[in-house]
Amino acid sequence: MHWCAAPRITSKGRNTNAQFGFTNTLIDLINKEKPTHLAVVFDTSAPTERHTDFTAYKANRQDAPEDIISAIPDIKNIIRAFNLPCMEKDGFEADDLIGTLAIEAAELGYTVYMVTPDKDFGQIVRENIYMYKPPFMGNKEEILGPAEVCAKWSIKRVDQVIDILGLMGDAVDNIPGIPGIGEKTAAKLLAEYDNIENMLEHADEIKGSVGEKVRNNRELAIMSKKLATIITNVPVAFHAEDFRVKERNIEVLTELFTELEFKALGKRVLGDSYNVFDNKQQAPANGPVDLFGNPIHQKATTSPMVTAALAEDKVEEEEPLPLNVNNIDNTPHSYHLTTGNAIDELIVLLQQQTEIAFDTETTGTDANLADIVGMSFSWEKGTGYYIPLPADKDGVLEILNRFKPLFDKEEILWVGQNIKYDMLMLKWYGFALKGKVYDTMLANYVIEPEGKRSMDVLSVKYLSYQPVSIETLIGKKR
Amino acid sequence: MRDIALEEIKEYAAEDADVTLQLKHAFDPLLDKQEVRNVFQDIENPLVPVLVDIEYEGVGVDVEFLRDYSVALERDIRIAEENVFNHAGVKFNLGSPMQLGKILFEHMKIDPGAKKTKTGQYATGEDILAKLRNKHQVVEDILVYRELSKLKSTYVDALPTLINPRTGRLHTSFNQAVAVTGRLSSNNPNLQNIPIKTDRGREIRKAFIPREGCVLLSADYSQIELRIVAAISGDENMIAAFKENKDIHTATAAKVYGVAETDVTVDMRRAAKAVNFGIIYGQSAFGLAENLGISRSEAKTIIDNYFTQYPSVKGYMDTSINFAKKHGYVQTLLGRKRWLRDIYSANQTVRGYAERNAINMPVQGTAADMIKMAMINVHKALKTNGLRTKMILQVHDELVFDVPEDEVDTAREIIRDGMQSAMALPHYVPINAETGTGNNWLEAH
Known about the structure:
The structure holds two protein chains of two kinds. Chain A is α/β, with parallel strands linked by helices. Chain A has two domains: 36-241, 5'-nuclease (Rossmann fold), CATH 3.40.50.1010; 328-477, 2-Layer Sandwich (Nucleotidyltransferase, domain 5). In chain A, 42% of the residues lie in helices and 11% in strands. In chain A, a hairpin with an 8-residue loop joins strand 4 (129-133) and strand 5 (142-144). Chain A starts with 16 loop residues before the first helix and ends with a helix. By secondary structure, chain B is α+β, with helices and mostly antiparallel strands. Among the domains of chain B are: 1-33; 63-159, Taq DNA Polymerase, Chain T, domain 4 (Up-down Bundle), CATH 1.20.1060.10; 226-361, Orthogonal Bundle (DNA polymerase, domain 1), CATH 1.10.150.20. Chain B contains 17 helices and ten strands. Chain B has helices at 6-33, 37-57, 63-88, 97-107, 126-131, 137-156, 199-202, 224-233, 236-243, 248-257, 266-280, 285-292, 296-309, 311-327, 348-384, 408-420, 441-444; strands at residues 60-61, 173-175, 185-187, 208-209, 214-221, 329-331, 337-339, 390-395, 398-404, 433-438. In chain B, the strands form four sheets. In chain B, strands 8-9-5-10 form a four-stranded antiparallel sheet. A two-stranded antiparallel ribbon of chain B has the order 1-4. Chain B has a two-stranded antiparallel ribbon with strand order 2-3. In chain B, helix 8 (224-233) crosses helix 14 (311-327), helix 10 (248-257) crosses helix 11 and helix 14 crosses helix 15. The longest helix of chain B has 37 residues, at 348-384. The two termini of chain B are 43 Å apart.
C-alpha cells in the first residue's frame, strides 16, 4: 500500500492518513468485489529467517514512517471492528502467511485473491489462486492468474518465479540476484535451463560475460532464490468462520471513526446510522475546518504518487452532505417586506429591543461608491424584516430619518457581519449607529484567526444552514 | 441589485439579518470558552467605528507628482533596458522569464550552476538574481528594470485610478479579520507593500498629501516588537537598554561583540539589528548568514553570543514552544490566541513553521493589539478635545493623521500620549512613539 504524505490531522493534532487510506481501501474492496471471506495480514517486528540469512535484506528500506507505525493499532482496531481477523506470526513475513493461507483455502475449495501489487506473489498463483493488484493512479485493478504471471515474466510455469527473481534480483526487497543480469537475460537462461540449480550445473557451458557472472555468483543466486521463496507452511490456519465477512460492529466503528474524525468516510462505511453532526461534534473543532467540519490540511506536499491518493481523499471529504445542511426551503421562517406605514410600526418594535441584527443591501462592494437599496433587521431567530429604499436620494433620506431615534439609542447592541461596511453606507447618507456593535465576522476572527469567514461559510459551518446565494438571486435575472 | 424582484430580495436580505443574529448566538459561548471575549469586546468591536471614520476620510493624492514621477520612471526603465540589451548584445523581451533565463545562462553563461524550475525554465526570481549581482553588471540592470517597472505599475500608475470620483481622495480599505497575527491589513492600495527599502520606492510616499491648510503627522512606535520581547521575556539586559533609552541595536552589538558601545562599527550594528529582528521570526543561523552575507559558523557565533547576553530571550522562545505544545495555541499579552496544531506534526518542516509562529505571534500580536488600542484611544481623545484632526492611515507600527496647521502641537501631544499609554508592558518597559510632520508622507515619516 502506498502512503499519502499530506498530513491529515485531527483537531487534537493526530495524523490519520494511514488509517484513512487503509479504511478506504478496505471498504472499496468489500463493496466492489464482495468477498465471502477476508483477512488482513501483518508483518511483525521480529526478524525472520530471511533477515538472519542475509543481513542486507530490506536494509535499504527506510524505517516505516512514525505516523504509519503509530497508526497500526488503530488499523488493527478497525479491522477487528469489521469482525475480520488480523493475522501475524513472529518469525514470518506477511507474504509467508498470505502464501500459506491462500494455498490452504484453495485446497478447501475457495477461490482466493491475494490483494497485493508485489511481484513475488506470482509464485503462489495457480488454479483458484489469483493475484489482485488494487486500482492505483487511474489504472483499473488487475487480476493475474497463472497464464498472466507466466506471460509477464516470459516463463513457463509459476514455480519459476522464484528462479527469475533469484537471477535478476528485486531492488525493493533487496534480493541481490546476480549482478548484471536483468529480466531479459534471466528469462533466456530459464528458457534454456528451466531453473537455477540446473543452470548452475551447466554453468561452464554458458558463453560470454553472462557465463562469467553466473560462475562468479553461484552462492548469491541460490541465496537470492531462497530469499524470494515464500514459505507456505507457516503454522497458521485458515478459519472459515473467523474469516467470514459478516456484520460490522457499528458501535465500535462509530467510536473509532469519530475519534479519527472521518465524517464522509464514516457515512460511507456505516450508512445513515453514522450521525455526522452528533452532539459531541456540535462544538466546532478548535482548528481551521472546511465546510463539512473536516480539519483543513494546512501543508500539502505534492509528488505525483501522492496526487492520486490526495485526489481520492478530496473526493471523499468534499462530497456535500445534503442531509445535514438546511436551507431556506426546509426551514420555517417569517420574512417580511416592510413599506409605507408598516415601517413606523416596525420602528416601534425595534425600539423595544436591546439586540438587533442589521444588514444593508447596496449596488456595490465599495461602500464609498455604492448606493443603498434596502435594509434588513432581525431580533428573533427565524424572523426578519426588509425595507426597500427608493432610487432617489431624497426618498432614502426621508425613510432613514424615521430611523434616526433608533440609530441614536446608545443602549442598542447592533449585530452585523462586517458591520463596518453597513456603518460606512449609513455615514454617506449622514447617519450613524450610536450604540455598541457586535461584529460576527470579528467574533469568528478572534475565535479562529485562520480560514474563510464569509457569512455563508460561517452559516454552513456553525448553523448547518446554507443561505440563499447571491448568484441564484442575480443569476436568475440573466 | 435594484433590478431584482422585491419578493426575492426580501428572502435573501431578511435571511442575512436572521442568520447574522443566529451566528451571534453560536459564537457567544465560544468567546467565553476560548477566553477571547475581552479581545473581542475591548479591541475589535470598538475599533470598527474608528475604521469607518478612516475609510470615510480617505487621503489626498498628489496626482501631478505621480504623473511626473511616472515619466521619470519610464525614462529610467528604458535606460535600464537598453543597458541590458547592450550587455547581452541582443534585444529580447525582458518581461519573459523564459527569454531572460536563456539569455543569462545560455547566451551569456553568467552562472554555470544555474537551476531550472519545475517547468523546465531557468529560475530568474529576485532571490536568485540578487545572489548573482557581482557576477555581471547586467544582473544589476535587470534588477533595476524590474524594481522600477513594478513600482510604476503597482503604485505610481495605479494610485490615480483608485481615486474616488465623489471625493477626489483615495479611500484605502482596512481588513480587520484577515491577518492571523491580529494585525490590520489594507488594500486598494496595500499600504504594507509600499516599498521602503530603496530610495525610489520611498518616493511613492511623496504622493500622499494633506488637505488644504493641513499637514500630515506621522506617529511611529519605535522598536515596539523588541520592547515587547524584552517585556515578555523579562530579560534584564534588554529591559535595561530600553529603560536607559539606548539605541537597542548598538547596545546589542556591544554585547554580542564584547566591545564598548562607542566602539561599535556600522557593520556590527547592522549584524546586531539583523539578529534582533531575526530572533522574533525564529531565524536560523543559516537564515542570518544568508541575510548578512557571512558564513554560517560566524552567524552561529553571533546567535550564541546573543543568547548568552540575553538569556531570557532564549528562555522565552523555549517557553513559547512548550506552551504551544501543551495548549495547542499561543497568545498575546491581552489574550488574542492563535492555534498552532502543526506543533504536533511529525513532519519537521511543518512543525518548524509552527514553532517559529509560536515565538513570533505573541510578539507581533501584542504589537497589533497595542496599535489597535492606540487607535481607539486617540480617536476618542481627538473627539473629546474637539479637534478637527483626522486619523487617515495605519501601516506597520505607524499612524498617520491629517492635521490642521493650528492644531499641530495639541494633536501631537494627544496622539503621542494616546499611543504611549495604550497598553502598559510588563517590567515597565517604556514605550516610545515618535512623531514627525510634513507636507507629504515622506516628509512626515
